[in-house]
Design a protein that fits this description.
The protein is built from three helices and four strands. With 97 residues, it is of the alpha+beta class. It has a single domain, classed as Alpha-Beta Plaits (2-Layer Sandwich), CATH 3.30.70.100. Strand 2 and strand 3 form a beta hairpin. The radius of gyration is 14 Å and the shape is globular.
Length: 97
């Protein structure tokens, strides 16, 4: 499993709407190889949102790029963003207590 992590910036007054719209779109898209969707909203900076998706592999994620569903998602969510997203693919390493 890998995690796609995307750091995004949105207008603070539209943040909750953005999370709802983006989350609903991802849920309905039901991308093959995708397992979980998490949004983290910043306490200190209300314009900052981190999106984390769990995928089978990088290829499972990237196979959807350029599809009509992916393009529609980008179009629907880009209107909320105030800056270009930053992020990448990560492997989770858990520390047991």
């Amino acid at each position: 499993m890998i995690h796609e992590v995307s750091i995004q910036h949105v207008a603070p007054e539209k943040r909750d709407e953005y999370v709802k719209v983006f989350g609903e779109f991802l849920r309905k898209a039901n991308y093959a190889g995708s397992h979980s969707i998490k949004f983290l909203t910043s306490i200190e900076d209300p314009s900052r949102v981190i999106v984390m998706l769990e995928w089978d592999s990088v290829e499972a994620h990237t196979q959807h790029r350029g599809t009509s569903t992916h393009n529609a998602m980008r179009e629907a969510t880009s209107r909320y963003q105030t800056q270009k997203s930053d992020g990448g693919h990560f492997v989770l390493h858990e520390v047991k207590s």
